[in-house]
Amino acid sequence: MFSRRNAIRLGLTAGAVGAVGAAGGVFQSLTSGTQAVAAEPPAGPPAVTPFTVPLPRPRVLALYRRTRSADYYAVTMRRARVEILPGLRTEVLTYNGTFPGPTIRARSGRAAVVKQINALSAPTSVHLHGGNNPQDQDGGMMDLIQPGRSKTYVYANRQVGATLWTHDHAHHMESEHVYRGLSGLYLLGDEAEDALGLPSGPYEVPLILRDAHFDAAGQMVYTMDDALNRTTILVNGAPWPYMKVKARKYRFRMVNSCNLRIFVMALSDGSPIIHVGSDGGLLPAPAPSPVIVLSPGERADFVVDFSRYAPGTQVTLANMLGPGPTELVGQIMRFDVEEKVTDTSRVPDVLTTLPPLPTPTVERSFELRMDEPGTGHLAYINEKTFDHDRIDTEIAWGSTEVWTVKNTSTTVPHNFHTHLVQFRILERDGMPVYPAEAGLKDTVLLFPGQTAKLQLTFDTHRGVFPYHCHMIDHSAMGMMAQMRIS
């Protein structure tokens, strides 16, 4: 289990220690509490030997039309049976029949027009997480696509390049829909990023992380707020895969698409990875670190230089945070290093320049809390559960605000996600943030008792947008509210 001693040993800065140092105690408490009240879980699937399945790459979605200013795509949401565990077929919910959904590669300043057809039996709503879009294109909780109907989303992509993702957001259904497969990557590129010379082409690799609970027949078992039993770790839809890599630099575009699981990851030899981007795009400068801390909805854009390893070396991406048995949740995937090849890519000392922070004129406070394990099934922001007929926060268009967000739960971690706007994290518990959090963010992790201070500017679209915990089972339990920008 991850501890403050391990955090310091791995070379984390004070901010990172604050973010993950208490995690071991948090999850020991959560796990033991759950075990005390939970019924005996059903028999699991046949055991999967880690690192026997090759890492798949999500298919890139092909466009069907291209104009001078826009690319056009069509996606059908439908059920499919796919092989996740070797030799078994699992029924999942999909975008275009793949698990996870296909990747959209879009360009900054060029619109992506995506027709979403709902061939499922329940309403859906497609949210571009991290996207700067007007209310009617945001994929809000109540903006539903009914079964047999479709909606065309227009993403103007008037924002810098970033690792974004799409997922279902239909309220009271989003938790199970995302768990069963309705998510996919959306990689937004731009010319400034292209000019940096970061690893690209076959050396730029998506890593979509998630967990699942399977029964003996290989079917997904969904239970609300079930952090304990989702112990099969999947990367790009494959359990504990391996990836053959050349002895050179690779860029990885990682998203945590889990409903609840927080990852604290490190290479098994303790060597550093180089953070180059987070939720909203590139960092100002590379941020070497031995760990990646990623809560649901967050993204990490990082480079690993495998040229430091001799061919034949095997390096595991390990996870140091529960809940669940270490032999299952303590490992994610393995890299098998092959021969050295020519590498002209680079990681420059300067990646981007962030705009200066305006002077804020409004300060607000938000408290996140949910019923502790065994005491209830509701979750709150400022002691209120979500009501789609209620506006919780009125915001003047063009204003800059500072939001202080605190997790007041005793044993349960949360995170905090804003639609529409990327924010800057000013501090954590009064301390400066560590470098990997120094860029644009839309999701921030908060362990019990932690406080983060965020600065946001509302100068793009007017309308009503949600903010919520992106441990998505918690938002489905009520930890969501609405802001109106006018």
Automatic annotation (TrEMBL):
Residues 1-22 form the signal peptide. Residues 78-191, 376-485 form the Plastocyanin-like domain. Keywords: Metal-binding, Oxidoreductase, Signal. Its EC number is 1.16.3.4. It comes from the Bacteria. It is an enzyme of class 1 (oxidoreductase). Gene3D superfamilies: Cupredoxins - blue copper proteins. It catalyses: 4 Cu(+) + O2 + 4 H(+) = 4 Cu(2+) + 2 H2O. Monomer. Belongs to the multicopper oxidase family. This is Multicopper oxidase CueO. It comes from Streptomyces flavochromogenes. The lineage of its organism: Bacteria, Bacillati, Actinomycetota, Actinomycetes, Kitasatosporales.
